[in-house]
Structures are given as C-alpha cells and as structure tokens.
Amino acid sequence: MNSFAQIIATIKKYDRIIILRHQNPDPDALGSQAGLATAIRQAFPEKNVLIGGNNTEGLKWLSTVQEVTDEDYKGALVIVTDTANRPRIDDQRFDDGAYLIKIDHHPNDDAYGDQLFVNTDASSSSEIIADLIDSSSELTLTKEVAYYLYAGIVGDTGRFLYPATTEHTMRVGGKFIALGVDTAAINNKMNEITLQQAKLQGVLFDILQIDETGAAYAVIDLEMMKKLGINQEQANSVVSTPGRLKEVCSWMEAVQKDDGTFRMHLRSQGPIINELAKNHNGGGHPLASGATAKDLDEVKQMFEELKDLVAKYNQKGE
C-alpha cells in the first residue's frame, strides 16, 4: 500500500495524466474521476489531464469524458479510481501508459498498478480523493472539486443511509457544504426519475419474488424494458427499491443485456453477499455487489445460493 504523499509525488512527475474508472459508471466512479482531474488541473495548469471511458446518458449532468487516443497513452500516468479489478476498467488500454495507479475502496482482490491506495473503510472513492487532496499542500479542495466529490459520496452512501457512512464521511461532507456546494440541487438531481422508471418501480413490486427467509429477486428482461420504453441503464435505477420492503433482507435484480446474459445487482441489509458475487464473475462490497449470469438458470441458481446465505444469517440471530 502506498501513501498519499507517494501518489502526489508521482502525479507531479508526469505532464500527461489519464484518469479512468469502471464500466457502467455510477456517481462515485464519475465523481472521484472528475474530482481528481479537476483538482490536478487547478493545481498544475501546465499538465494535460484527460478523463476517459464511455459516457453514461443518465449521468451526463455530472460528468462527461474526453477523447483519449492511443498516442495520449504513450508516456502517460494512468490513474484508475473506484475499480476493483482490471476487467471492469472502462478502457482496456489502461496498461499502455508509463505508470499505473489504483485508488479504490472495494476489497483489494486484484492488486493491480505500480502504486495503489485502497481503503475499504472509506464510504466511497470520492471520500478517498477528498482525503488525498486534504493531505496535499499542492492540491486544493475548491467548490468545483467538492461538487463532484459530494455527488460521489452521496451516491455510494445512499444519501448517508448505508452502513459505510462514518463520522469521517459526515465531516468531509461538512467541508463541501462550507464551500457552498448546492447539496440540495445534487440530491434532487440524483433522486430524479423518468415516468417510465416510476412505472418500472411499480412493476417491480408485482414481479418481486420474496422467499420466507427474506431473500428476494426480480428479473427485468428485454421484453419488459421494451414494453416500458426504458433501456438497461434506466432499469438499473431501481436496484435499491426492494430494500424499502420490511419483508426483504437481501435481494438480487437481474437486468438482461442485449446478448441475453444478465447483469446481476446484489444488495443486502445484513448477510455478506460479495463472495456469492465472486462465484459468478463479479464482486464488490460485503453488502453491495455485482455479477453476471449467463442465463435464467444461473439467475435461479444464484437465488438459491442467496436463500442459503440469508437462512444461515437468520439462524445465527444476527
């Protein structure tokens, strides 16, 4: 594990810096990426700082990417934020640079990079970037930087509802408010859904299968998305919805992709589910993970595994 001082020293050495994050980015991926990029640009205006990956339509209000060429990677420092493993990095040229840094808060199952800073106790990668900036005499937490980082922290803490929210998280958020960040506007934007997404939430309660253990799952297939007029990105927005039900302890949502496979979203309010995710080409946090199922049979198999996990959790009386 490297220190913040070592990472800052490396940043100072390179004239071109490319910052990446994971595929299908959420607010923390975008916030940590854009927040770090903005802080470096403000501190070192002579450096060429690029943010890469693919844009996410529903989060363009937060951040958009730039075109990064093969030539840009030559001799560049590459920093990857909020990405636990290499296959999920949203540009597989990440290793074409001169040096690679990983900054993340997920379990460090894939310790890639020439330098890495991983803090699994942090609420988000955006919180880590805020701490990195705070540790530096060169980088400054400005209102513009704080805008991105606040969105990232709010996204990964569920508006400070999830267990990952700590006293330190709240202190960091307080700094953003002191800088004048319009937190209400960000919260309202993140809470916004389309009429089609609202209809999907209603349908979700109808199709959700809830086991007596408190395990639950729902399948959102291509036919349903077409009928409701939503895409896969919009379908992902309802992943937290089952957690509002008193009867649900842990749950999975299977969103079908164009190739027929399913993107699996796993969430829990107690039982640890990231090992289950790892067994199905995924991983993540103990209470929030993602995986891939090749077909409905694998989706059902994962649900059986989830039921077993919840049942054992209940038996322990936790």
TrEMBL record:
<dbReference type="Pfam" id="PF01368">
    <property type="entry name" value="DHH"/>
</dbReference>
<feature type="domain" description="DDH">
    <location>
        <begin position="16"/>
        <end position="153"/>
    </location>
</feature>
<protein>
    <recommendedName>
        <fullName>Phosphoesterase</fullName>
    </recommendedName>
</protein>
<dbReference type="InterPro" id="IPR001667">
    <property type="entry name" value="DDH_dom"/>
</dbReference>
<feature type="domain" description="DHHA1">
    <location>
        <begin position="220"/>
        <end position="311"/>
    </location>
</feature>
<dbReference type="InterPro" id="IPR051319">
    <property type="entry name" value="Oligoribo/pAp-PDE_c-di-AMP_PDE"/>
</dbReference>
<dbReference type="Pfam" id="PF02272">
    <property type="entry name" value="DHHA1"/>
</dbReference>
<dbReference type="GO" id="GO:0003676">
    <property type="term" value="F:nucleic acid binding"/>
</dbReference>
<dbReference type="InterPro" id="IPR038763">
    <property type="entry name" value="DHH_sf"/>
</dbReference>
<dbReference type="InterPro" id="IPR003156">
    <property type="entry name" value="DHHA1_dom"/>
</dbReference>
